[in-house]
Amino acid sequence: MKERYIPIAGTIFVFIALFLTGGALYKHFLSTLVLGDLLADNAFIIIAAIGTTFVIISGGIDLSIGSMIGFVGVVMAGLVGHGWHPLAAAAAMIAFGVLYGGIVGWIIDICDIQPFIITLAGLFLLRGSCFMVSLDSVPIKHSFVDAFSAWRIPLPGSGFLTSSAIVMLLALLAGVVIAHFTRFGTNVYALGGDRTSAALMGVPIRRTTVMIYALGGFYSALGGVIYALYTASGYPLAGSGVELDAIAAVVLGGTLLTGGVGLVVGTLFGGLISGLIATIIDFDGTLTSAWARVVVGLLLFLFILAQRTLIGTRNALRQSIG
Amino acid sequence: MSREHTNSVGLTAYPRAVLVRLAEKRAVWPLLALALILVVDGFISPEFFSIRIVEGHLFGSLVDVVYRSMPTAVVALGMAVVIGTKGIDLSVGAVIAICGAMITWRLHMGDPPLIVLGAALAAALLCGLWNGLLVALLDIQPIVATLILMVSGRGIAQMINLLYGGTDPSFSSDFFAAISTGHLAMLPSRLFVGAGIFALLWLLMRRTAFGLFVEAVGGNAAAADLAGIDAKMIKLAAYLVSGLCAGLAGVVITADTHTSDPVSAGLYIELDAILAVVIGGGSLAGGRVYLGLTLLGALIIQSLTTSILMSGVPPEYNLVVKALVVLIVLLLQSHKFRARIRRSARPAGKHLP
Q1: pLDDT tens per residue across span A260-297
Q2: Which domain, by its residues, includes A41?
Q3: CB count in 10 Å sphere of residue A22
Q4: Which candidate from A125, A244, A292 shows the least CB-CB separation from B147?
Q5: Which residues of B touch A127 (CB under 8 A)?
Q6: Distance between CA atoms of A93 and A89, rounded to whole angstroms?
Q7: Structural domain tally of chain A?
Q8: Which end of chain B is more exposed for a tag (fewer CB within 10 A), N or C?
């Protein structure tokens, strides 16, 4: 097996093992109903995490995702309240996300500031803007929203593929195409692998950085739109901490936080693993939500440890060859 | 007079030189910022500077600013040391939550207060040790390594609360109240805790070789290693310091609220602490530790918050204002940005310090 596929193989193995464990422990767990719910409930996190995957592969980080999801929700609710069609509001918010991400990427490149701190400022800015727009949860009432949540494709068995899950899968497909079949995707990997070599090889650093964060903004805004449609409301505290869930999903998906290595499709399974842990805890009934955090933290630790060992052996091999 | 015509800023050569020299002093900009905020506060509320004695305690807005900034300041001091080694500690908020749960759990078990305090600080040190081991021994990036505890720490705190049933996570303890909200010689007692940890850290950083080693490791870990400094041990020690500082802040915060609140205790404090370090001139690229300026940074953040609350602007704007302050400070700190401004300013004939 190729070296780059080892992490994703590990991720898929953990996902299947968890799913089978759930099936062994609880009746009705091994069903398309659970799978469909898993996809629907985690759709917005996974969508946002796809953008984070690009950012992390390029060697950066984006901490403002959760705030973006909240901000998109409250503004969408406001716009729909003013008579906008939800789709028009969604398009406007996605355009905002792209513009916002582009500006962040531009500042990162032009000022040579660590992405971590500038996106932290973005976290404050967007969350604060949420509170400025609205302090309460605002319902989004529109026939389109009802139609969106009602529309679903039945799966064999008793399950459904909901519309948000379908949007997520399409967004994932687009992400895979961008990452592996475009020049931009190659540039992202090159930038994360070694910035200096990438620049020497002629990768346009500034344009690529701006595009990476614009793409991140696009996906987190899309995640916000899906979350708003899914919950049919805009809530200023929505998405708090989702940036961490998204980063966890990316890491569990086998992407190296040092940049340069990772697969977009891994993020799907990474997100599903944390979702699956929450589902198992729900099924159990006696465990509290505290377990979900601790188990996700533990898995993060194990994955990072495994990554270190993989890199360690690779570097040792290189040294023994060179 | 002809000089003033050639100089668009309108200063003669001599005061300019003085100004330039002043501007090069690190403390000037944060001090100016703090002074500006305080002056604005003075305009908003004429009583802002009045300090009176009520029931034998000093009382007034200025005292309140210092009082409220104490937990953030203590966390920021530990953060400054970690950032000095080119690291970061995202888990401080979670450590505060764990400390709160430890205190409540042990008090419910009937331990004497001093033992409880020891248990809480030991838990905090254990968290610091965990972070330090991940960063120093396993060589994991600090953001990622401390992310693990940040994600799971609040869950651990919730689990500790379950140890005693967790139905009533509140407590009353004269000892802890005395540390946090009590008074000593007219001043809030928590200020003595803060001053104590500051003095200790200052001695450690400036009167022992440790400070030199921290800055050497942060400046260039490989070079420090070649120079014979055990970079791993220094990093480990830095995370222990940060853990202990977060623990102390956790004790003060928990004693203040008389309850363990794993979900929101110390929420976002890591951001405020990092912000305080950055405002104080600490570079996230490592190699610099300014403890005094970090305190100043924490004071700036708190006085900013206080003035937002006083000015009648809705508190929701607090976050936005903070974000804009971070952005401005970051831009001013960025060499590339400053060089760009200087370049674009020169043709217009302006001289920026």
Answers
A1: 888 999 999 999 998 998 888 888 877 777 788 888 88
A2: 3-321
A3: 18
A4: A244
A5: 319
A6: 6
A7: 1
A8: N
A179: enclosing H helix or E strand:
helix A163-181
CA distance, residue A247 to nearest chain B CA (Å) = 9
Of B88, B262, B319, the CB nearest to A124: B319
Q: How far is Cα B291 from Cα A107, in angstroms, rounded to an integer?
A: 29
Pairwise CB contact (< 8 Å): A111 & B320: no
Q: Are A220 and A51 contacting, i.e. CB atoms less than 8 angstroms apart?
A: yes
Of A167, A161, A159, the residue nearest A34 (C-alpha)? A159
CA dist A137 and B264 (Å) reads 20
Longest dimension (CA), chain B: 81
| Confidence at residue B3, expressed as pLDDT on a 0 to 100 scale | 44
What residue spans define the domains of chain B?
72-312
pTM equals 0.83
| CATH code at position A294 | 1.10.3470
Q: Between the CA atoms of A131, A132, A136 and A141, what dihedral angle is there, to the nearest 10 degrees? A: -120
Contact list, B141 vs chain A (CB under 8 Å): 257-258
Q: How far apart are CA A289 and CA B239, in angstroms?
A: 28
How many CB atoms sit inside 10 A of residue A89's CB? 23
What are the pLDDT tens digits along chain B (353 aa)?
444 444 444 455 566 777 777 666 777 778 888 888 888 888 888 878 888 787 777 778 888 899 999 999 999 999 999 999 999 999 999 999 999 999 999 998 889 999 999 999 999 999 999 999 999 988 888 888 898 898 889 889 989 988 887 677 888 888 888 888 888 878 888 999 999 999 999 999 999 999 999 999 998 888 888 888 899 999 999 999 999 999 999 999 999 988 888 888 888 888 889 889 988 877 777 888 899 999 999 999 888 888 888 877 777 787 888 788 778 877 777 777 777 777 776 654 444 44
DSSP letter for B164, please.
T
Q: Which of B147, B334, B337 best tests the A interface by mutation, with the highest count of A CBs <10 A?
A: B147
Cβ atoms of residues B181 and B255 within 8 Å: yes
A62 φ, ψ to 5°? Answer: -130, 115
B179 within 8 A of B189, measured Cβ to Cβ: yes
Residue found under tokens 């928590």: B190
Which residue from A minimizes the CA distance to B160?
A290
Q: Residue A177: what pLDDT?
A: 96
Contact: B151, A293; criterion CB under 8 Å: yes
ipTM score assigned to the predicted complex:
0.77
Q: Which of B158, B271, B320 sits opposite A120 (nearest CB)?
A: B271
Is A75:A234 a contact under the CB 8 Å cutoff?
yes
Who's near B15: CB < 8 A, 6+ residues apart?
none
Q: Which of residues 92-111 of A touch B (CB under 8 A)?
A: 110-111
The per-residue DSSP string of A22-86 comes to HHHHSTT-SSHHHHHHHHHHTHHHHHHHHHHHHHHHTT-----HHHHHHHHHHHHHHHHHTT--H
Distance from CA of B39 to the nearest CA of A (A): 25
